[in-house]
Amino acid sequence: MQSERLRQAGRKRVVIDDVWPQIDAGRFPIKRIQGDKVDVFADILADGHDLIRAVVRYRRQTGRAWKEALLRPVGNDRYHGTFSVADLGYHEYTVEAWIDHFESWATGLRKKHDAAVASDMDLRIGAELIAGAAARAKGTDAATLKQIAEEIVSPKVNLDLRVAQALDEKTEALVQKYPDRSHATRYDRDLRVWVDRKRAEFSAWYELFPRSASGTSGRHGTFRDVIERLPYVARLGFDVLYLPPIHPIGHTKRKGANNALNASPTDPGSPWAIGSEQGGHDSIHPELGTLEEFRELVERTRSYQMEIALDIAFQCSPDHPWVKEHPEWFVQRPDGSIQFAENPPKKYEDIFPLNFETPQWEALWQALKGVFDHWIAQGVRVFRVDNPHTKSFPFWEWLIEAIHQDHPEALFLAEAFTRPKRMYRLAKGGFSQSYTYFTWRNSPAELRDYLTELTNGEPAEFFRPNFWPNTPDILHEDLQTGRRAAFQVRLALAALLSSNYGMYGPAFELMDHVPREKKNEEYLNSEKYQIRDWTWDWDVDAKINDAASLAPFISRINAIRRSNPALHKNSGLKFHNVDNRALLCFSKATPDRDNVVFVCVNMDYEHTQSGFVEFSPPAVGLPQQPPFVVRDVLTGVAYTWREYWNFVELDPKKLPVHIFTLELHEVH
Amino acid sequence: MQSERLRQAGRKRVVIDDVWPQIDAGRFPIKRIQGDKVDVFADILADGHDLIRAVVRYRRQTGRAWKEALLRPVGNDRYHGTFSVADLGYHEYTVEAWIDHFESWATGLRKKHDAAVASDMDLRIGAELIAGAAARAKGTDAATLKQIAEEIVSPKVNLDLRVAQALDEKTEALVQKYPDRSHATRYDRDLRVWVDRKRAEFSAWYELFPRSASGTSGRHGTFRDVIERLPYVARLGFDVLYLPPIHPIGHTKRKGANNALNASPTDPGSPWAIGSEQGGHDSIHPELGTLEEFRELVERTRSYQMEIALDIAFQCSPDHPWVKEHPEWFVQRPDGSIQFAENPPKKYEDIFPLNFETPQWEALWQALKGVFDHWIAQGVRVFRVDNPHTKSFPFWEWLIEAIHQDHPEALFLAEAFTRPKRMYRLAKGGFSQSYTYFTWRNSPAELRDYLTELTNGEPAEFFRPNFWPNTPDILHEDLQTGRRAAFQVRLALAALLSSNYGMYGPAFELMDHVPREKKNEEYLNSEKYQIRDWTWDWDVDAKINDAASLAPFISRINAIRRSNPALHKNSGLKFHNVDNRALLCFSKATPDRDNVVFVCVNMDYEHTQSGFVEFSPPAVGLPQQPPFVVRDVLTGVAYTWREYWNFVELDPKKLPVHIFTLELHEVH
Predict the structure, then answer these.
(1) What is the pTM of this model?
(2) Residues B232-260: what's their mean pLDDT?
(3) In chain B, which residues have their Cβ closer than 8 Å to the Cβ of A107?
(4) Exactly one of A36, A180, A239, A386 is catalytic; which is it?
């Protein structure tokens, strides 16, 4: 029975419904970055004709005082207002509303006055309301209000003048400073916003294997080698340098080159088969260097305005210290042996999964948190989490919140290549960013549908996509042809459609494209199982179509991302009509429309495609009317467009991407 | 911080999201009637590859034991199951799910066996799971399970045979009787269903003014006269007889005929100006009869399988006893006088609204509840509530729940002619049925849109429309022409589109159609302000197009409603394509498709309209293939349809409505 709760509503006549945004009735926070505005909507109703006044209340969750911003009606009993979030961490918001007796009365008086039926009684009623505000007011306001209340009922003054004084803007403003909120209704839940630093929303990731970073054939790369690579990665324009696991690699059932079941003695093994007698998740593979050298790498990376992301993969090689120290953290078979990973009938005997149903789950959770704590202590603040969907969802929610308590600046990228609802649930549960299905959305129509799902409605409130054209696990069929245009387009789409993106290099910029076998997305001679010799340190300032490397192209794209704030968020994405299905055209705009970027790409990587595309500056909030000049910021070439529908042509053998901005000066 | 709550999740690996149906996170119940099935959906996820088992738990709210029904996966991590509600009142439901280790193991074993890699170890693991079930089992099941656990690891038996026994259906069924739910996850809220009696969903209302029921010009009608009218109303086929307020009528500022501001001494006044020195909301207007006569009317109405609905209008004439006894329940003006109703600059001086912000709100709430209690004590169980949106929303929610505690059979129809969100909120807050915008949805396209909104998605869970072609307040323009076809079509649409409908008679069946003035929906000589002489007791068995009254048509429509269960709910509504925009074609089907009715109406009330309409029996779940025979149950005429698209022609001067059912016998 709810009777008691309902009785407590008593004199509160306003009801508040359908507050937006909220995720699962406030069970999960929405996400924003520092400096963002939060737009809040609510249905606010009361009986009868009285007017309503409503505010959004918001605060840092740490018990600080509530602040308020007015909500204004936007039609159909819906109200809207905004507040800003400046600090990292949790914020709370809710809605409060009340009958505005003063405005209701003033509106009625205005109508009566217009109909010449206003009376002394009307003014006496208003005087009581104003006197009420006086009683709530402080200082001179109280005296002023008291005086107005007296004057508007003064028999010495003409009725019209008194009505005018009662309805004066200043009277209204003063009364509204001291509203009667004694019967205000508060929405029945406090909702939460989690506020991240900007990199949660705008980041460009470069993945490399440190062991292949030496630049010298036959020599195992080290952290010091990675330090040597930093200027190159920085010149490419990336801001997160992501390293696959750096821990000791198991030797039991170690995989050989190209995932061979039996490794030769010289095979280095997969970095994801974590743990040996040399240590586990808080140790460093000795051939990479020392903890001190790792700390130096972290520090030097920061000096380039980049930061290191570590790969946290919670699985253990049979040689991991935990296997001996904590066999109870694994699934034990009837004979006491530990169960290896399997997906029947396939076996993965080089890996032991953790058992999240162990009775010792609390110790296990703490140990796993300890891994993050350890690397945070070394200066790391960005983590790429391997296969989070194969570990308990409640664990991640607890872990991320626990880390965020002391380190709200920590970021977590979920490598959640899994079914859509699991992917979204990990994001709701705290992951800052997520891998996506981008790699497998390979036509303009598929990308329109997918981005529409990601950037509209509920997912946009908690899910931050991170688009990757390739990873060490995924060499998509589109890239296997080795066509430069495919690499260029997939990179441009990742970088321009999604404010977070990444690539696995140097495989990508060198257009490595040979799969291990047909119909397989694995690279031939994958770095997962062997060391590769790469040529590093390409000249990023070379001509954009330098034959051997995409480095100049990538560097140009990243520079365009940095200098155009429209590309720092996904909220301003809009697709544009075009009469050729091989072309994809979209724009991105900042919330206040002071930066708009318009992109066209040709997704036919073999043939020139052309068509008419609709780009109306007023439709994206810009003032320009045709004719106007657009400039391709990749090539510097300007075009005068004399209509909203304009011709574009993209030759994959030249450059399959246009990135336009509008020239501000007048066209004559 | 949620850490503590999250830590309690501990070993619970399953998470449950997006349970449907639920209204505002369970803040409001969904609604059903006795005997309904409730379809429950949920997203249920766990990490990894393990299989999940899930149930919906449900019970009467009165602390009874939970029952359970299995939820089955329907794709994309969504699960579905059903339960039935037999009793009136609140029921609760929620979802529980757990990792099904036995099924996960059995599925793996099956795959391994198919790949010829099953091992003794696999069976030993399974034996532990089966032994676990044995430990939870009772009686002979425990012994049987123990025996199976032993047999499948017996070294004396061939591995294939042991695998076969482990995977046997009987083994599975027995193990599933005793699942390991120690780490089961329960959805974090209990949701509610409010269950009404069938009349909440299927009802036909006839509104009449008792004072016009005498059948004798110049004599004020009485409850005894209404008793004389019961056989007629019953033969028309209605089951709710709704009376405007029956209380003493105020004389101060009484309105005269046609809403004149000054009444003549013989004007009877509006029944909605409630209260005089003869009493208020719990009294009877003396000219109508006594309380005993009213009770007799209630009883006699029941003997016709009908029931009385009373109009509860919470407003007071200046002569109402409450005005003197409880001036504090009204808005008092600075001079101590009571504020009449107004919508500035208009005044309604014959009415005092109640003040739901009074400090004495508790006494007021109790007094208003007392009005319902009083009439419930006289046998009334159906209430039509006048303008509920001008009284406090929290009050209604409290009131209806309080009445329902002792009288779950009580029904409340909201006369909520107001904005959509207020209309919906009253329904969420407990009103059993609501007036709608039906009267102002006057084209096939508008009706399709409106019914789609009402019968799909959230509103269908809590909002039960009651469609009225006319009311004493609303004589729609479409009826003002007096065209018989307009009356027939509007009544048929109300009765067939909505399982709840009503009409105001005899104005409707006699096609009263003259408005007070042009562009006005008020009746000329409205019964609200004067007594009307009606001819009652028409022969309902006359020819369907009897010249003077629609009684035979209405009686036929109501009989078709009663004998076709498809028309008892709105959930089976489907619109059908037709190539003429003046025609509206729809079907209604029972949940199990054992009754399907197909309707075509011509909404051009002047001209014959014809067209091809698509009606595919398989598309609505019927087995018939063309050719098939449809019979118009209004006229008895049968048609053989040889395609899915068939020709219909409707002449407004004959009969503008087809109501088809399918003949079950074969066509040759």
Answers:
(1) 0.95
(2) 97
(3) 344
(4) A386
